[in-house]
Amino acid sequence: MPRPRIPAAIAHPVRLLPLSFLALILLGTLLLLLPHARSSEGRVDLVDALFTSSSAVTVTGLASVDTSTYWSPFGQAIILVLVELGGLGIVALATVLGLFIGGRLGLRTRLVAQADMHVVNIGEVRPLFRRVAVMMFGFQGAVAAVLTLRYRLEYFDDLSTALWHGVFDAVMSFNNAGFSLNSDSLIGYAGDGLIILPICGAVFVGAMGFPVLAELFKEWRTPARWTIHTRLTVWGSIALLVVGAAVFLALEWANPATLGPMSLHDKIVTGIEGGIMPRSGGLNSFDWGAVSGETLTVGTILMFIGGGSASTAGGIKVTTFLLLAFVILAELRGDPEVTVGNRSVGPRVVRTALSIALISVMLVTSTTLLVMLLTDLPFEQVLFECTSAFATAGLSTGITPDLPDSAKLVLTVLMFIGRVGTIAAASAFVLRRRAPRYHLPEEQPIIG
């Protein structure tokens, strides 16, 4: 029997990527609509099921309902699986399974994986997936073991509950998703470094990006041999962590609703969290709705920047942000080329970075305006919420459950675009089939 052929109109890898995520979102919605997925009697609301499935697959973590009380253990397990699939990537997971079971990769599968993982050389896909699978599940297992031990010794009387919370939080943290089995997220563990710091470490590592982790796996002892992408991601992430934590501590140190009543140790632990979680973590041990306006602005900026490329984090990505800084620096200096270290950056990469940044600004601002028209909420909270959805960060000031269905659908679309990537989502429907065979006359309009 001949194998069914994928229509040529959707067979291109850049189109298959968003369609694959969309298919998983729809499947997750159907599973969450099952009666056993809800903890109490009554039908699951369709919009809440769609919103939760989208938030899980896009590893965002925004919740329109209380995960701990609205969903049954079966529903929570569905969310965990959707997050794991979304974090690894639909195609990445299928490829890893294919490697372990059959050891073969089709050309189309590798092309789709290349589009998802941003691998430059198609020959790198197979070893990359193998390292990513081992690293991802190994790291989650280690974090789950640490958290389970702490939960069992300090917070839960039985091992099964501690294990379930440990595994759930490990998966959510590494995949940069903000779902929690507690109604108040991590507020009950505020200042507990044996819980907050492992979770923050998992968020930080998960936000580095799979290509970076694979390179560090081989070359972590020799930073001089790192690629420009790895250097930008690693050093940029560390710099944003330090600056974000320092600014957060300075702004919230005396705030009676956040850090004010805490001890010095608890403030430092929470400050580290405040520098990491806005990058796409989504979990929180303090109320983001109680922070100052300045802190909310800083958090919005950090969310918009996001984490590393081809990672579980969202945003425009730290490499895009830093590359644009080098573009501005080159323009101010009058340099004919954009250089990073001892390497030059081609115009195609610069155009992509500019396109991502401008499309992202347009999406966030337009959806912020739209949600403000649909609600009576203030600008700062709506901007924070929309940025969190686009950057798949999962942080919220607490307004998500109270949004009307129309606003929830807006955020659902925003989470989807933020996960598959602005360029991939746009290119999926406007791909050029043929390269142009002519070059139009050049003209230089006045800029500025």
Describe the 3D structure.
- By secondary structure, the protein is mainly α.
- It has one domain (13-427).
- The protein is 62% helix and 1% strand.
- It contains 18 helices and two strands.
- The protein has a two-stranded antiparallel sheet.
- Helix 11 (228-252) packs across helix 12, helix 11 packs across helix 14 (318-333) and helix 15 (347-374) runs antiparallel to helix 17 (405-420).
- The longest helix is centred in the first third of the chain and has 30 residues, at 125-154.
- The chain is globular, with a radius of gyration of 22 Å.
- The chain starts with 12 loop residues before the first helix and ends in an 18-residue tail after the last helix.
- 47% of the residues are buried.
- Residues 94-102 have low confidence and may be disordered.
* Strand content bin: under 5%
Distance between the termini: 63 Å
User: Helicity, in percent?
Assistant: 55-70%
Structural class of the helices, strands and pairings?
Answer: mainly alpha
Question: What's the layout of helices and strands?
Answer:
Elements: H1 13-32, H2 46-57, H3 67-70, H4 73-88, H5 90-101, H6 107-117, H7 125-154, H8 159-174, H9 193-206, H10 210-219, H11 228-252, H12 264-276, H13 293-305, H14 318-333, E1 338-340, E2 343-345, H15 347-374, H16 379-390, H17 405-420, H18 422-430
Antiparallel strand pairs: 1-2
